[in-house]
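Section 5.1 Outputs to date
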Amino acid sequence: MTRRTFKIAEVSKSAGEGVLDIPSMAVLRYKDPQALLDDFKALWGVSASAVALPVLEPDGLLFEVEGLRGVPVSEYAEPSARAKSFAEAVKTFLTNKVDIVLTLYPGYGIIPGEGIQTRDIAGDTANRVCIANTRSSEIFGAALGTGIDIVNEVAATVKDGGQLRGIALDVTELWGMSGELGRVEKSCFCASCTQHFEENAPDLLKHYRTFPNPWSLLLRASGTGMNYVSDVATDMSAEEIVGLARQGKYVEQFPDYDHARLLRTADLLLRYMRIRHSLTVAAIGALFDHACEGLERQPTRTLIMEGELYGWTSGLWLELLDKAIADGEEVGFDELWISPGMSYVPRHVPYRAYMWSRSRYFINQFFQLAGALCNPRSRNHTALRNKTVEEARQMLVETWHRTHGLALNAQAALLTVPTPPDGSPDRRRGFVGVGLEEEFGRPFSEQLTIPETSSERKSIQPFQPRADMMQFLELLQADEDE
């Protein structure tokens, strides 16, 4: 008897075009490019048509950028024994007839000084760059733009090979947040951000320079990070915001507020969210423009997002981005990469399903933690000094196991990608698979150069299994010596 073939057997074909994401050049030290491409096809059932490569690492530059002399060079500027440079790694993939997408997280604190760092509402800085600062756009635009030039130069030497297809910004963690019960401290309120708010809502920020402030209607600190409500539609009223706050018991942070005062507070929150969105969209567009200035052939511009209706750490309303495309507005990007667990399915902007829970968010945090462990300043001037080298390595291995637990590395996961519920055309172009395996953590940890510290051992707050890793990093920075 012949077995029947069911519709889901065509999942790989219906999933669309596949892109292999390599979040760090460190991956190339454990698997060569051909093995990564072979693994992708074996797992997903289709060949990768493009490979995404980073232009920066948490520990520094991957290639020389004019004007950035003195900025640390990454340990992975020489990706592997076979690929001695970023350009050689690019050439290997182009020779395999796959296109290149260059990725960038525009927040790495690799630039000396505090001039472009984020600053929270309490005035404290963090080792993260503010994308809204004009100088930040120029710096990261130059890094991305130099990467574009390198890929184009290499592509010109490879006959019948791949080409530069696009550039992608990881915006999952632009605006950090921390706090304690009844006290939320979000960023950024540097001079650039403050000026934008003052120009658009001169009376708004004074309501946030106190506790509890309007954020606490939908944000709350806990022992394992920040709890939040992200299903906030763009057309919600203040009454509906208060309803969400009551449903999640966030109103307990406002014991002295009556309903009328809660409504006024909700209105202040909605005003903040709209202005932060407009600021972020403008900053993203400026960075892309710097990177692409003067190019004859413009690459596709992509945003890597979590997929929540409202992203508290991206500062973006997914639905508002989609509607802007529909209305013909200039938004500065062409495509989205978002997690299959998306709260809103784009109806107008093309997108790819990024096959990892919350897309790049936890992957990015893992590599930032690794960078902090290898940074002598972090090792000696934050709570990381209380970890021995072996304890630091083990912490990283355990963190990777938790991070990989969020992977959606299964062909069947493609079946979970939602489609528009109202019969709108499906704008999905394909999916993004990540070239990271569970076994990656230990060998990666063992090859890191983690400085020893002679500091006296003290108690360090343990990293809880379900904690938000960025909150953990914020705690480390908060413990920095005077």
